[in-house]
Design a protein that fits this description.
By secondary structure, the protein is α+β, with helices and mostly antiparallel strands. It contains twelve helices and 29 strands. The protein has three domains: 222 residues, Nucleotidyltransferase, domain 5, CATH 3.30.420.40; 74 residues, ATPase, substrate binding domain, subdomain 4 (Actin, Chain A, domain 4, Alpha-Beta Complex), CATH 3.90.640.10; 97 residues, Substrate Binding Domain Of DNAk, Chain A, domain 1, CATH 2.60.34.
Length: 520
């Protein structure tokens, strides 16, 4: 029996983690070579040597121009919108993320003393098509077979719910990390985990709370000394470190003293938890609004929620816990480590994916004892049903209004994988071609949606107006879309121009370029 080793990776904005399933069928965090259970998502470029993690983070103040952090917020962007240049080479968000994954992979192989072949990587539930594709690419560039992309709240629920599958319950997952925020409602019924609704903001996270403190210190420094320390990159890194330490202290204390030095001058200020909560109330309100929105989407009242599951380091803040307590009387679940729960759940999904592959191929790579632990009472595998986090539509022509509009092919919250077919008529007689524009978003106005791709299909001559054009939207478990168009005997597939940093032909070149770098 050939052994495959699968891991779960939480590729986070501020910290990343990697987990595996041990010989007893339990998800375990794999510590890095620095013996830390989570690795800072910070990259330090030192010529052909790349350092990822705490050492890189500690170098941020001394050499900030050689540092990359918060790269997750840039995932899915084309190179002309985001790139970083080091040693004459230009790196996309995928390539930078791949370096973080390479570090996690190498450390895990050293710890487990075996090669790692496969991975499940997590993403915020609200990541769109381009961001998901970029995450898959990052895993591939790091030398992994990416079995699946899984939503972070889904992974958290898996880690929490694996030993509770015999209790039917509705779980509200609140996931606030360093750079992204997700809320997902799921139902555990008869050994199945079903997503009911999801919403979020992938540009809201702990960094926004940090920045409030950063600006407060900078304003006080400017007031005292007539100089803005934010204009200096070195000083910003130092400011950010001070702010982060203050934020963490205010989770367990009522006040903290911040001392900051810059250019031979200094400032000292006392920040109380009350003042910090007042200055960040707008961020908490954003979280609250999204919580209420997702409850409306699920058509649920708070008394129907059985458990509130907290994930992400920011859920340690008293202001966040107080906000959630104000919404729901349900106790918050604390028996899971918010920094580790997502990677543990991804490792569980990794085993489920491999077992599922075995059922299809008939080739065994996992011990029977392990299979039993991940099976429901009837012997079948535990089922996880995810939902679409965005609506996927097609742009049509409204003959009456004489304008374009978006028709929703796969509405938000549709269970996935999904295959949806629909038929439309040509707008005019004798049309030479049918142009199919595929978009993602909740609006019916094309300009307010994200374009995903265009298919231009040739039509035979003399077709009457209203001739059928058949569309098939196929949405896989990774929430990546394929579209097929049929018209008058002609077939075409839409090439989804995801507008990400790397085109398919560039991926191989990027992989070989990253291979030349020494990552530690």
């Amino acid at each position: 029996m050939s052994q495959r080793k699968v891991v779960g990776i939480d590729l986070g904005t501020t910290f990343s983690a990697i987990a595996h399933i041990d010989a007893y069928g339990k998800p375990q965090i794999i510590p890095n070579t620095e013996t830390e259970r989570i690795t800072p998502s910070v990259i330090f470029f030192d010529d052909s040597h790349v350092i990822v993690g705490s050492v890189a983070k500690n170098n941020a103040v001394a050499e900030p121009e050689k540092i990359v952090d918060f790269v997750k917020r840039e995932m899915g962007k084309p190179k002309d919108q985001f790139h970083r240049e080091f040693g004459g080479k230009i790196y996309s968000a995928e390539e930078l993320s791949a370096l973080i994954i390479k570090k996690l992979k190498a450390d895990a192989e050293k710890y487990l003393d075996q090669p790692i072949t496969d991975a499940v990587i997590t993403v915020p539930a609200y990541f769109n098509d381009a961001e998901r594709t970029a995450t898959i690419t990052a895993g591939q560039l790091a030398g992994l077979n990416v079995l699946q992309i899984i939503n972070e709240p889904t992974a958290a629920a898996l880690a929490y719910g694996l030993d509770k599958l015999d209790e039917n319950q509705t779980v509200f997952v609140f996931d606030l990390g360093g750079g992204t925020f997700d809320v997902t409602i799921m139902r555990i019924v008869d050994h199945k985990i079903e997503m009911l609704a999801t919403n979020g903001d992938h540009r809201l996270g702990g960094k926004d709370w940090d920045d409030v403190i950063v600006n407060l210190i900078a304003e006080e420094f400017d007031r005292l000394h007539g100089e803005n320390p934010l204009l200096d990159l070195h000083s910003y890194q130092e400011l950010h470190n001070r702010a982060l330490a203050a934020k963490i202290q205010l989770s367990s204390r009522n006040n903290t003293i911040i001392v900051y030095h810059h250019g031979g001058k200094s400032v000292k200020l006392t920040l109380t938890r009350k003042e910090f909560e007042k200055r960040t109330r707008h961020l908490v309100e954003k979280c609250k609004t999204i919580c209420e929105m997702v409850m409306q989407e699920a058509k649920l009242k708070w008394d129907k929620i059985d458990k509130v599951l907290l994930a992400g380091g920011m859920t340690r803040m008293p202001m966040i816990r107080a906000m959630i307590s104000g919404l729901s009387a349900v106790p918050q679940v604390d028996q899971v480590n918010p920094d580790e729960v997502v990677s543990r759940g991804a490792a569980i999904q990794g085993i489920l994916s491999i077992l599922n592959e075995e059922d299809i191929s008939g080739e065994k790579t996992v011990d029977d004892s392990l299979r039993q632990q991940f099976s429901a009472l009837d012997g079948g595998l535990i089922e996880v049903t995810d939902i679409t986090s965005h609506t996927l539509g097609v742009v049509l022509w409204d003959q009456r209004q004489l304008q374009e509009y978006v028709f929703p092919m796969i509405p938000k919250m549709t269970p996935i994988p999904a295959v949806i077919r629909n038929s439309f008529g040509t707008a005019d007689a004798n049309m030479q071609r049918a142009v199919v524009k595929v978009v993602e978003g909740e609006s019916t106005v094309p300009g307010e949606c994200t374009p995903l791709g265009v298919c231009d299909i040739q039509l035979p001559p003399y077709l009457p107006k209203g001739s059928p054009v058949k569309l098939t939207y196929q949405y896989n478990a990774n929430q990546v879309l394929e579209v097929e168009v049929q018209a008058a005997g002609n077939n075409a597939k839409v090439t989804i121009d995801r507008n990400t940093g790397l085109a398919p032909q560039e991926i191989e070149q990027a992989a070989s370029g990253l291979g030349e770098l020494q990552v530690s």
